[in-house]
Amino acid sequence: MIRSPLLEEFRNNKSRKYEIKDIVYHIVEFSGDQHGSRFIQQKLETATSDEKQLVFEEILPNCLQLMTDVFGNYVIQKFFEHGNQAQKTILAKHMEGHVLSLSLQMYGCRVVQKALEHVLIDQQAALIRELEGNVLKCVKDQNGNHVVQKAIERVPPQHIQFIIDTFKGQVYTLATHPYGCRVIQRMFEHCSDKQTNHLLDELHHCSAQLIQDQYGNYVIQHILEHGKPKDRELIISKVRGQCLPLSKHKFASNVVEKCVAFGCKNDRQALIDEVLQIRTDGTYSLMSMMKDQYANYVVQKMLDVVDGEQRELLVSKIKPHLPGLKKYTYGKHLINSK
């Protein structure tokens, strides 16, 4: 890339103190340069309104190109943070008609997210509306999913109803997707019950599969931590009776831990009783769980959260086996933790 003499001088002369006015007519070029972009970003944080206007007038005709530029995107983002409302509105207006392509682009998606944080509600709604018909494409895209997450966090619920509507019949597919599982979690965090109830019902229909899925287990954990008691109980009911196999499962074991941590006292009691139940051969599940690479963490979690008689009972069952656990890598965790 051929640099102007001014940018060359700026990059090489570290002793000179530059101001915004020194780089007028070169602001776009500086924005696309690693050092120049950093200089403008820093200046914008403390710039006077006149200085900001200078920068603004120069970048505006090239703003779309800068939004998808590796260094330029940061200058645009800074403007959404430090510009005045009129400038933010005009910048966002230039994005109209391009929101989908920006959202799917590595740097553009950051600018869209920043815009959603700093523009007024009508404009938020207008920008995000452009994703209609392409919501699932965005959710499953490594860049676009962040825009959908930001919309769910920042845009008032009535303006993103079309996003929620797109998820109908798609909960299993999205919850088992590396990006979709994050979007679903944001939705349960930020949307109203009215918006999410039917999607929760959908989730409960497939929760047994999601518990064991490498991405779905995160959605289930999220509900156990942040969901309503009735939803928590529904999930725990799927774990009860399956505590041993699920605890030994790479992904499901995380869910069992959360059931132990966030279940009510009765749920916890039931899960612990289940692993202490004597089987026909005289053993009980707890014994094999202590030696298992995943299930030993569930046992630790049980020890962490129980108290009183339940704890004494657990400890009394674990203690006789401690000497034998020394030869198991995973058993050592338990010895060390207690």
Key features of this structure:
27 helices; mainly alpha; 70% helix
How would you summarize what this structure contains?
By secondary structure, the chain is mainly alpha-helical.
Quote the distance from N terminus to C terminus: 62 Å
Major sheet summary line? none
Supply the helix-strand structural class.
mainly alpha
Proportion of strand residues: under 5%
DSSP helix fraction: over 70%
> H/E order of the elements?
HHHHHHHHHHHHHHHHHHHHHHHHHHH
Report the average pLDDT across residues: 94
Q: Name the shape in a single word.
A: elongated
- Tally of individual helices: 27
| Total strands | 0
Radius of gyration, in Å, reads 27 Å
Low-confidence stretches: none
Description of the structure:
This protein has 338 residues and is mainly alpha-helical. Among the domains are: 1-95; 241-338, no CATH class. 70% of the residues lie in helices and 0% in strands. The protein starts with a helix and ends with a helix.
Write the layout of secondary structure elements.
Layout: H1 5-12, H2 27-31, H3 34-46, H4 49-59, H5 63-67, H6 72-82, H7 85-95, H8 99-103, H9 108-118, H10 121-129, H11 135-139, H12 144-154, H13 161-167, H14 171-175, H15 180-190, H16 193-205, H17 207-211, H18 216-226, H19 229-239, H20 243-247, H21 252-262, H22 265-276, H23 285-290, H24 295-305, H25 308-318, H26 322-325, H27 329-337
Helix pairs in contact: 3-6, 6-9, 9-10, 9-12, 12-15, 15-18, 18-19, 18-21, 21-24, 24-27
